[in-house]
Structure formats: structure tokens, C-alpha cells
Amino acid sequence: NAARDIHPPGYYWLLAVWRLAAGETEFALRALSALASVLSVALTYALGRRLTSPAAGLVAALFVALNTFSITYGQEARMYSLLALWGAAGMVSLILFVQHPGRRTALVLAAVNAAGLWTQYAYALVMLAQGVLVVAWLIAEARHGVRRFAYLFGVYVVANLFTFLLYVPWLPNAVQQLTTWRVAGVEPTPLPEAINQILGWLTFGVTYRYSSPGSFAIANILLLFGLIVVRGYGRPWWRMLVPVAWVLVSVAVVLALADFRASNLKLLLPAQIGIALWLARGLWVVWHFARDEMRRQGAVVSPERMARRAALFRGAALAGGVWLVFNLIAGIEPLYSDPAYARADYRLIARTIESRQQPGDAVILDAPNQEEVFRYYYRGDAPVYSLPPGLGGSDEATRAAVVNILNAHERAFVVFWGETERDPNRVVETTLDARAFEVADTWYGDVRLASYVMPDETLDITESGARFGEHITLVRYALSRETVAPGDVLQVRLDWTTDAPLDERYKVFVQLLDEDGVLVTQRDSEPGGGLALTTTWEPGDVVTDLHGLLIPDDLAPAHYLLIAGLYNLNEPAARLPVNEADHLPLQSITVEDVSGD
Q1: 299 phi and psi, to 5 degrees?
Q2: CA-CA-CA-CA dihedral for 427, 428, 430, 436, to nearest 10
Q3: Cα–Cα nearest to 99, from 234, 250, 284, 226
Q4: Distances in whole angstroms, Cα of residue 282 to Cα of each of 168, 214, 286, 319, 554
Q5: Read out DSSP for 426-460?
Q6: Which terminus of the chain has fewer Cβ atoms in its 10 Å neighbourhood, N or C?
Q7: Other CB atoms within 10 Å distance of the CB of residue 333
Q8: Would you say the C-alpha torsion 54, 58, 59, 64 has a positive or negative sign?
């Protein structure tokens, strides 16, 4: 199932070995990512120690450990925490190569970079940042003579050639996948919003909105201080440049792709380590700023004055660091309590389908790269179809596949995720909404589970002409039957039209009331399963709106009244008037006794 993914197989190979020892429970499979994330924290300390100081290394490691960006992907059975680990290891290897250029360090750099490329294509961002740093280093080393420059340049080129040779077996697959992976139809995020979101995720994590406004100002000030070269501490300018180049190169490339989306942010997870190192260096510079500034000015001041200034800057550094840590900690709890950050619950989705499925059902995964995780949990008997077929690209092939499924099955459970990229024209959903009756849909994190029933060919059509509000008319409606049993799905087709453009979005409700007017079941949805919004209706056009009303299993045999109506999306109590009422009676429905009593 993992082979259907676009990503290189490095993570999956490692996971296959890992599960031989750890097992296949959720904890065991996620533990590999957790381990990679913890090791990334350790390597962050190693980087900070080499680039700045042991204290700065500890601060940077703390920033990474508390950042909900790294926490989120350190808890998922995906390759992104391993990407961050290889990114940190790649930078450590580069620093070792710069400090001790030679065949051994070049070999280590080449091997780590190859491992990163086999893990995720986005590792190329790390290598690009390495290239910028190496160019700056070689320019500085050129003063030692042409021979040394040529030697260092040659060793670095050989290291990259070795990386290329290690990656050659996968290169044809990479070219094929990256050139056929379709993301058309997705609206990019505006540049100012994209920059703000990137800085928020890198600095404070996915829950950065819980950070105080002042925290971003403090972070920006520390980033500026991090650009200052402090003299007298044996730290060359190149070490200052490492986290800066790492962050700026990665962010610039992602933005330059001109299709930035929030879903791309996980590709910047290694750069989160870079910004933690940059912030930690900024704190370290502020801590030493007073004495360094006096050295710059050659000032002769009293020890007491120097001590006061040093205490002032150290106090500012301590306060800034504590404030950043406080805001990082503040973002952790919402990661688990705020519904906006709820994870996709495929376990519950699979269990829900298993509990409801019947002979003749089908399961459709809209975006085939769900199959890996869905099949891990799913133990049902219904066949599973991944759509669009292959990597997508043919709407006609997708539409034909959906029609074939509808013809072969009586009901379908559809798991929608990632369809904006894999099925940008919503062919799967529009075909389902045009040919089947949606019974229900529920969100599980950012994944939606919808259920459909295939149409009854004997729909009883009734002309209506009922006027809702000033402009909307129910042209006709049709029902699948007047007598149903508990557990059945009553199919309701509503044909709408308008005589003027509509500025408001309205939801359609279909309800079943008992003899006392008490609601017993209902279905609420924007027209066309949410794809035919009332604001898009053209005057004179007829909009077909299909609803599947599930009859509760425990509903008592009796006569019930089926009603329909519309209400404002933002004001559910504001129903459109129809015939001096707030709903239209459609039909008396009889729920029959199937117990035999």
C-alpha cells in the first residue's frame, strides 16, 4: 500500500525493518518517528554547540523540543520527522567536512545526503542550502591559494557525485513521479499570508496562533541580533551564516514555486531546526552584546558601568528566552484540545464503515494515497476502490470509474481527503452527487466520510411550484417510496430554480416529523451535496438536489410527515417562508412494522 505513495521508499524500508522488532501496533509504528524527532533534538544541540556555544545548543534544542511543528510530525507514522533528522545530520556532516575536509568527512556527507534524498524529495532544499554555504566557505578559503581552493572544491564535487551515484537507482522513479504528480486547481496562498504562516510554524509551531502578538516581535528582534558577528569568541562569520542560509534558502525555494499551500509546510520541517539555531544565536549575541560593543568602540569604561550594561543585556536575553519558551509551551495544549488541530481519525472511520456495511456496499477513497493508512485499520469485507485511478489526470477515466462502481453496488462509503490536489475538478464527488443520494457526511479531523445510496428507478415525481422567499421555487420533488422500514434510506429529489441571482447561501433541510410534530430524523445540506451553492445558481436553471434520509433503526411503526425547507447558512433559525409557513409538507410516510407482530 505504501508503494502507491509519491515519496521515495527510504522511510518505508526503514519502517519495515523497525516493525520486525517493534511490531505493528500504532505505538510501535509511530515510535520510529518519535525516535527520529528526539534524535533531531540531540543533533540540534550538537549543531548549536559547534556553531555558537553549549548554552546556545541547549536553548536551540529546547526550542525544537517544544515546537508543535516538530511535535506533530514526531507523532505520525510518516517520513517527515526522519526528513528533519537527516537535515540536521546533513548540516552536522557539512560542518565536520568544513572543519576537517578530506575523504572520510566527504564520504559521511555524501552518505547522509543520499539517505535524505531516499527519504523525501524535499531534502534537496537542505542540499541547496549546503551548496550556498560551501560557496561562501570556498570564497573565504581562496585567500589560501589556488591549490587549496581546487582541492576543497574537488573533494566537495566528488562527495556530491557519490551522493548522485547512491541515488541513481531511484532517479527514474523520482523523475516520473515528480513530473506526473498533478496539483492543478489548488489556489495558492497570498504571499504576505504565506510568509506569516511560514514564520509562525517555524518559530512557534502549527499552533502559532496561540502565541501572544509580542512574541513575534521578540522573535524578529532576536533574528536580527543573530545576524551580528560577535568578535573575540572564536566564532567565524561562516558559522553565523549556517542557520540563516538554511532557513532563507528553504523558504525562498518553497515560495518561488508560486503554488505555496499550507500542505507544503511540512517540507520545511528541517528549516525549523535552522530557525531554532538562529534564535538561540540571537539570544547568545544579546547576552554578550554589551562587552562586544565596547570592544568595537574601544571604549574605556569603569568596571561598574560595564557590569550594569552587561546585566541589562543579559536580563533582556533571559527575559526574551523565557518569553519564547512560555509561548511555545502555551501552544502544546491546544494541539490536543482545539478541534482545528484534530488529526485525521482513520481508525474511527474504518470502524464506522465496518459497523454499518451491508452486502453490496463499496468503499471509495478519493485520493489514492489514503490507502496505506486506511487499509491498516480496515477489516471489513466491502471492496475498496482508490480514485482517481493511478496518479489522476483524466477526468473522463475517473468519471467512468465512479459510474462503474455505482452500477455494481447498492451503497458506497466515500472517504474524502486530498481531493483538491488529486481530483481538483471534484469529478468523484460531482458524479456521486449527480447519480446517487448522499445519506450523511461527518468530519474526522480533516477527513470527511460520506455515505451514498444508489438511486431507486421508481421515484414518484410530484410537481410543486412552491415559492420559498422572494426568488426560490421548488419546481418538483420525487420520493423513492411512501412506505419504509427502520434502517431504510428514503430518497428525496428536489428540483430548485431561482428567478434572480442569490447573494445568500442557504441550506436545505429534509425532516421527518411524528404525529405530534416532533422531529425524528433529518438531513441538512447545501444543495448538490455542498457543490451547488445557492450563490452560484443562474436564474432560470433547474438545480437537482438529492438527499438520502436515513430512517432510524428504532423508529416505531406509525405515520410520519416529510417536510422540506431552506434556511440561511449563517442563521439556522432564519428559514425562508413558504405558503405562510417556515417549511413545506411533502408527503405522509408510513414506517412499517418489520418485526412480524
Answers
A1: -75, 145
A2: 150
A3: 234
A4: 40, 17, 6, 13, 65
A5: -HHHHHHHHHSEEEEEEEETTEEEEEEEPPPTT-E
A6: C
A7: 12
A8: positive
Q: Identify which of 476, 469, 507 has the alpha carbon closest to the alpha carbon of residue 494.
A: 476
Q: Judging by DSSP bridges, how do beta strands 460-468 and 558-568 pair with one another? A: unpaired
Cα 560 to Cα 260: distance, rounded to the nearest angstrom: 52
Dihedral angle computed from the Cα positions of residues 335, 341, 346 and 351, in that order, rounded to the nearest 10 degrees: 80
| Other CB atoms within 10 A of residue 457 CB | 6
Query: What string of DSSP letters covers 162-188?
Result: HHHHHHGGGHHHHHHHHHH---TTPPP
Tell me the whole-structure pTM to 2 decimals: 0.85
- Confidence grade of residue 234 (pLDDT, cut at 50, 70, 90): very low
Q: How far apart are alpha carbons 12 and 21 in whole angstroms?
A: 15
**What's the average model confidence in pLDDT over 464-478?**
95
**What pLDDT does 392 receive?**
60
Q: d(Cα 277, Cα 242) in Å, to the nearest integer?
A: 9
Whole-angstrom distance, CA of residue 316 vs CA of residue 287: 8
Q: Which helix (H) or strand (E) holds 10?
A: helix 10-22
* Percent of residues, the chain, with pLDDT higher than 90: 70
End-to-end CA distance of the chain: 49
Question: What residues does 524 pair with on adjacent strands?
Answer: 509
**Do 232 and 215 form a contact (C-beta atoms < 8 A)?**
no
Nearest CA to 186 out of 96, 258, 235, 250 is that of 258
* Nearest residue to 162 (alpha-carbon basis) of 112, 126, 122: 112
DSSP 581: B
Please name which of 487, 486, 473, 459 lies closest in space to residue 546, comparing C-alpha atoms: 459
Q: What is the pLDDT of residues 272-287, one digit of tens each?
A: 999 999 999 999 999 9
Cα–Cα distance, 569 to 566 (Å, whole number): 9
User: Cα separation of 75 and 35, whole Å?
Assistant: 10
φ, ψ for residue 444, nearest 5 deg = -125, 90
d(C-alpha 255, C-alpha 208), whole Å: 20
How far is CA 29 from each of CA 38, 83, 86, 303, rounded to the nearest angstrom? Answer: 15, 16, 19, 58
| 420 class by beta-carbon count within 10 Å (0-12 exposed, 13-18 middle, 19+ buried) | middle
Dist. CA 229–CA 374, nearest whole Å: 51
The 3-class secondary structure across 377-419, one letter per residue, is: HCCCCCCEEEECCCCCCCHHHHHHHHHHHHHHCCEEEEEECCH
Is the Cβ–Cβ distance between 558 and 514 less than 8 Å? yes
Please say whether the dihedral angle defined by the alpha carbons of residues 250, 256, 259 and 261, taken in this order, is positive or negative.
positive
Percentage helix, strand, coil, to 5, in the chain?
Answer: 55, 20, 25
